[in-house]
Structures are given as C-alpha cells and as structure tokens.
C-alpha cells in the first residue's frame, strides 16, 4: 500500500529562521505528493504538490518542498518562518486504485513558530 | 464560491442514536471523500465516491454508510453511534483525472461527540 510518514509530531522554530517539516513516502510507481496545512478549527488547505519535473516545488505562502527520489523524501521548507505559519501540516500521497484514486495522509506535524 | 460545505458543524449524540452528515460541493467534482481526524492518527479515509451513484470503502468503513444520489452531495450516515466514533469528520472533493495529480478541496469539518 502507498503511505507517507511524518517522523516529527512537533517542530519548533524561531520567527525568521528557516523551517523544515519532514515527510518520507513509500509508493510503487510514480509518486504524486502533496502538502496541506490546517489552521485551528479549519479544514485542510492545499499548499503544493509534486507531480513530475523540477525537484523543487514552490507553493503558497512562501513554502516550497524538495522531492528526493533516492531518499524517498518530500520535505516542506520555508526560508524564513512567521508566527502565522504555526499550524498542523500534513503530507499526503495520491495514488490510483481500481476504483478511482485515493489520497492517503501522514499523521501530521504541528509547527510552532515563536517570537 | 462556497466550495465544499459540511452540515452540521457540531453535534452531540447519545450512544445508539443515528445521524447523517451532509457534504455539498459546487465545483462539479466527480470524486468525493469522507475522512475522520483523530489526534496522532492523521486523516483516515472512511468511504469515497468516484461518481454519482457509486461508493467504495476506505480504510475505516465499519459503522458508517454513505450515499451519492446527486453528484454534488455525499452523505455519511451513522446508524448506531458509538463513543469510538467521536471525531472530527472532513469531506473533500476533487476532479477526476487519468492520473492522480489533482489536489482535493476540503470542507470545514464536523465535530461529532458521542456520549
């Protein structure tokens, strides 16, 4: 089965510092990888996706993610964190099944950006 | 655009009661999904639908039923609620593609408590 893993439950970073939220994947075939963000009491919002092509993907709010095939990773990054980036971040993999396609999520990483 | 709308936003049920959660989307999406979100477990797929009149089981379908009588609506039913079904429920929708490269759009969630 296709899966993603987020090894850190929480990441703390000071405002202005770079941030990284880690994700590794296990898929057969070409991976379609996504990052979503969830603010308190809200639904998930799409940040960015990797389909093919350039290994560095740019998304919303200054976030980017680096796809590394040899390490099967898709880490989310931002050069300079903001307090407003504090939220729950989910990595996900989308894959094709006989009945359509499914979206499988990691367990989430809580990002806390402090002054 | 309303996007994906879930009704109700909050509900408290007694054990054994039944209820239906409604998801409506106005983006003409073919695919619709129901997830539950529990602390430390991320989002887990309950049921999904690839088109009007079709549904399929996800990872955790037991205790739930679904129906997709109209393309824009996806209903999630609990016939006899149990405390283990206390969770936050999210509906999502997406376009159908031959690959798995499109992002999903999420509703705001329904917080359900079963006492």
Characterise this structure.
The complex is a heterodimer of chains A (115) and B (115). Chain A has strands spanning 3-5, 10-14, 19-21, 24-26, 32-38, 44-50, 56-58, 64-68, 73-78, 87-97, 100-105, 109-114. By secondary structure, chain A is mainly β. Chain B has strands spanning 4-7, 10-13, 19-25, 31-38, 42-51, 54-57, 65-67, 73-78, 87-94, 105-106, 110-114. Chain B is 0% helix and 53% strand. Chain B is mainly beta and 115 residues long. In chain B, a hairpin with a 2-residue loop joins strand 5 (42-51) and strand 6. Classes of the chains: A mainly beta (115), B mainly beta (115).
Question: What labels would you give this structure?
Answer:
heterodimer; A: 115 residues; mainly beta; six-stranded mixed sheet; 57% strand; B: 115 residues; 11 strands
Helix-strand category of chain A: mainly beta
Separation of the first and last Cα atoms of chain B = 36 Å
Instruction: Report low-confidence residues of chain A grouped into runs of 5 or more.
Output: none
Q: Based on helices, strands and strand pairing, what is the structural class of chain B?
A: mainly beta
Number of strands of chain A: 12
Tertiary shape of chain B: globular
User: Please, what is the average pLDDT of chain B?
Assistant: 93
Helix-strand topology string of chain B: EEEEEEEEEEE
How would you characterize the largest beta sheet of chain A? 6 strands, mixed
How far apart the termini of chain A lie comes to 41 Å
The amount of beta strand of chain B, in percent, is: over 45%
Contiguous runs where pLDDT drops below 50 for at least 5 residues of chain B: none
Q: Roughly how much helix do the residues of chain B carry, as a percent range?
A: under 10%
- Overall outline of chain A: globular
Rounded Rg of chain B: 13 Å
